[in-house]
Amino acid sequence: MVNGHYHNNSKVTYSIYENWLSTYITDSSIQAMKVIYCNSIYLSYKVYTMKNFIFIFLLVSSSFALQDDLSLQTYFKNYLNYFNTLRRSSETLHDDYFKIVTPQITSKVLISAPHTLPHLRKGKYKWADSGSGALALTLQRATKTHLIYTTRSGVDPNYYDKSLYKVALKKYLQEHPEIELVIDIHGASPKRSFDVDLGTMHHKSIRNVELYKLIKSHFDQSKLKVSENFFSASKAETITKFAFNLGLNSIQMENNVANLLYPEKKLSLNRLLRAYTNCILHLEEAL
After folding, report:
1. In a domain, 76, yes or no
2. In 30-166, at which residue ranges do the beta strands (DSSP E only) sit?
């Protein structure tokens, strides 16, 4: 410290901020503003006392969090509209009823959303898990994971192994051996008492106990009501069981649709999006 100012290791400090910045960039329109903020932090580090530096750091951190939350909510709303449009054009069965998104960066996580639209089970249509598709696409955009989701009505890939969805999923997983975890996203009735249910075939499908603890901790800390294995994914031919049998870690995550669709649940939606985003980013580091 020289005359109350901190100058040592400035290059190391700036490198830390660069890494932190790149971790939380979710949209190119926000990137430029974050770079400006990052440079402001660096400048305050070189010019002001440590007390002022910490204050500015916390202020800017809060601004980043607010921007990210607003971005996530905007993405989610737009994707809800997208699936509403798909639903109106999804009255007949299609073979090409799914889409796969490959990230431009290396990811060890794949998100699956098989119930984005009405699906056929035992000869009858079942309602879509409303909001599950919008949640999956929002998370993929924010965290840059792999993604597979339905875009048309078809046979239920979470009930039958003989589905083109699973054929494509297996092939994709074989082509991307870096993937170690499959997160299968679903929507649960608003009557359920939980916000999120973690289905792990009764703690079987996540082989690494510490990995499961990491997942659960993010949702526990978000002030959401978390249940375990209400929907265990151990019955029928679920995506979770399918991925587990291929040697991967897998989990079925049921989300109360009230949080996804009801305007009065906006705070819960924000907590849910933030918990998922932080969880996936930390999983990428832990895997």
Report:
1. no
2. 98-101, 109-113, 119-121, 124-126, 146-150, 154-155
